[in-house]
Amino acid sequence: MKAELLWTEHLSPTSIRMRWRASVDALEFEPGQFYRFTFNDSDGAFERSYTFAQYESDCPAGHFDLLISETKGGRATQLLFDAAPGLSATLSGPYGRLVLPSEGRRLFLVATSAGLAPYLPMLHSLEQSTSIPFESVHLLFGVRSPVECLCRPWLDDLALSHAWFDWEVFYSQSLPSKPAMNEHQGYVTSGLQDPAKFDPAQDWVLLCGNPMMVDEGFALMKERGFKSKRVIREKYLFARQERKASDLKMSDADRALLQAKMARYQATPDSE
């Protein structure tokens, strides 16, 4: 399907929110899943994967939001951060298994920077539900400095309006001058250090963001007694150095096998 950019909002010096309109009236999508985008710039076509990040009730059917953080020198950054309304892209998807579990005692959502994106539609979905399948939901959000704390007004309102939700912010570089009770100095994984905070048999932990954080968080949860299936992970994927098509050595049989595996696991060549 096709999609057209409607507007861009700068959330911080290094992050943007984009609203797109798809060429279909309804998009197949489970909160937390991502789509594969094909863009075109002066060097030709290229692909990136982005998670849908809409969290407001006024987002019409067939529309979606992206939450994107800057990558220095990145090809997509150069195109998207300066894009005017009307930019087009081709989409395929949805993909991904970072979605809401069906039940559990507590749900822990752990993110760094734009890794917050998949959790926004999850939280919006829970907010709209008459009942949620968890006793409580806890967001642990890691950023470098206060200016990069994305979507804070909405998250604060959600915490004030719903007793089942709370969130904490971890600043790796600098704290606000007057930090609130839920603001801490350090990396977001410091919020996973207390073994008494978790119940491996009934809780779920979702990890999304920087690969080092995801790996460290997964290792910590394993130490706490969590089985792998109760720790769902998705890492940032940075574009690999592009290669010319003539450099790719893959037989038709290899390609068919890869496509079959991708279909089976709802994966893309760059997914984990």
How would you describe this protein?
This protein has helices at residues 75-80, 119-128, 152-161, 211-223, 252-265; strands at residues 2-12, 15-22, 34-41, 44-51, 63-69, 88-95, 106-112, 136-143, 165-171, 183-185, 204-209, 231-235. It is α/β, with parallel strands linked by helices. The protein has two domains: 2-95, Translation factors (Elongation Factor Tu (Ef-tu), domain 3, Beta Barrel); 106-235, Rossmann fold, CATH 3.40.50.80. The strands form two sheets. It has a six-stranded antiparallel β-sheet with strand order 4-3-6-1-2-5. β11, α4 and β12 form a beta-alpha-beta unit. The radius of gyration is 19 Å and the shape is globular. Mean pLDDT is 88; it is low at 241-249 and 268-272.
* Tally of individual domains: 2
N-to-C SSE string, H for helix and E for strand:
EEEEEHEEHEHEEEHEH
Taking Cα atoms only, what radius of gyration do you get, to the nearest Å?
A: 19 Å
Largest sheet: 6 strands, antiparallel
Uncertain segments are: 241-249, 268-272
Tell me the strand order in the biggest sheet.
4-3-6-1-2-5
State the share of residues found in helices, binned by percent: 10-25%
Short description:
Mean pLDDT is 88; it is low at 241-249 and 268-272.
Topology:
Elements lengths: L1 E11 L2 E8 L11 E8 L2 E8 L11 E7 L5 H6 L7 E8 L10 E7 L6 H10 L7 E8 L8 H10 L3 E7 L11 E3 L18 E6 L1 H13 L7 E5 L16 H14 L7
Task: List the defining traits of the structure above.
single chain, alpha/beta, Elongation Factor Tu (Ef-tu), domain 3, Rossmann fold, 2 domains, six-stranded antiparallel beta sheet, six-stranded parallel beta sheet
